[in-house]
Amino acid sequence: MNKLRVKFTKHGPIKFVGHLDVMRYFQKAIRRAEIDIKYSEGFSPHQLLSFAQPLSVGVTSDGEYLDMTVNSMVSVTDVMDRLNAVMNEGIKIIAVEELDETSVKAMTDVYAARYIAKFRETSKPDFDWISEFKKYLSKDTLPATKKTKSGFKEIDMKPMIFDYKFDTEKQEVMLLLSMSSATTLKPALLFEGFFKSLDREFSVSMLSLHRIDIYKLVEKDNEKYIEPFIVTDTSERFYLNG
Hints:
The chain is an alpha+beta fold. It has five helices and twelve strands. Strands 1, 2, 3, 4, 5, 8, 9, 10, 11 and 12 form a ten-stranded mixed β-sheet that branches. Strands 6-7 form a two-stranded antiparallel ribbon. The longest helix has 14 residues, at 19-32.
């Protein structure tokens, strides 16, 4: 029995497919690929499959993850090739990694996510939003009202922003935001707070969002940093203060 972590991309029209449908899509794809996946026991067995973090509808990504348990396999490369052979356009498996038995589920390990945010061509602000956004992010606190399962909650978004970087030529910003079980900050809420501070109207449909990757927290040798779920030679590591 092997525990595997699969990294995949989501591009094109399939970005409009919701999380539950993506789950069903992978369940069928795994059967078509003849992956020897393990099923749960009981009267209604299901594939032992779990996803790291749902991706909002309309958002593209280069770093989505799912964990699955297989009874047997030839190699991780064979699993990747089999899956890619049955994938529809827009989803591509880019890495498969074997996990040790003590590894926790991907959804439990999520700590942060990195995005690229910019405005759609038809929704570009009529002001220098990058200059104003820089001023906004430099504030000591960034209050916002977040909708939760139990109602609405007042939060400070500032501690949930781990890193950001602007590209003035491309008119976009890279945002590394908290996505742990305790504190999750979505780009849309941050931009909503930004526009509210300027007394301007905002709609999430104005944004074009792309998720670069999902990150886990690592505490090792007196260091605290975050890195992608599957680390490659080109992966970036971000060190945290405290």
